[in-house]
UniProtKB/TrEMBL annotation:
The lineage of its organism: Eukaryota, Viridiplantae, Streptophyta, Embryophyta, Tracheophyta. Pfam families: DUF538. This is DUF538 family protein. Keywords: Signal. Residues 1-21 form the signal peptide. PANTHER family: DUF538 DOMAIN-CONTAINING PROTEIN, T31J12.3 PROTEIN-RELATED.
């Protein structure tokens, strides 16, 4: 009987850690808590770190990720960092947009009601929040076959291209 106790304890601790893991929100849910749509990040985030007290975050992808949305070409590095606050993403690093022939870093995203403003420092552009209701997929953006991927439902199972 005494030899079963350590085995039971290990199983109980394992089950406990599984429950806690399920209670941890996804990075997409964290974005929504701060009034941002899930589509600011592509599907395929493998993990993230977030400090509630400072708002600092780091998001990890399987690798670099690029895709086109309309006339814009976007590129995400395998690590994206920044500071998250209600209606404001600042000090961003790891996300670039191609404008003409130049790759410019997106450094800030702010939300004003139903609009998102993306800033590259010297210039900015506004887009409706509804454009980001779904997650783009690395390699194909929104022109993918699997809708569940874009809605962030299976995001941890897919790899970046």
């Amino acid at each position: 009987m005494a030899s079963l106790w350590p085995t039971f304890l290990v199983l109980a601790l394992s089950a406990s850690s599984l429950v806690n893991a399920d209670d941890t929100p996804t990075v997409y849910e964290v974005l929504q808590e701060y009034d941002f749509p899930i589509g600011l990040l592509p599907a395929g985030v493998t993990s993230y770190e977030f400090d509630n007290s400072t708002g600092k975050f780091t998001v990890y992808l399987n690798g670099t990720c690029s895709f086109k949305i309309d006339s814009y070409e976007l590129k995400y590095k395998s690590t994206v960092k920044g500071v998250l606050a209600k209606d404001k993403l600042s000090k961003l690093s790891g996300i670039q947009v191609k404008v003409l022939f130049l790759w410019l870093s997106i450094v800030k995203v702010t939300r004003d009601e139903d609009e998102l403003e993306f800033s590259v420092g010297i210039a900015s552009a506004n887009f409706p929040v509804s454009n980001f209701d779904e997650c783009p997929t690395c390699g194909c953006g929104f022109d993918c076959e699997d809708v569940d991927v874009r809605k962030g439902r299976l995001s941890r199972r897919f790899s970046s291209s």
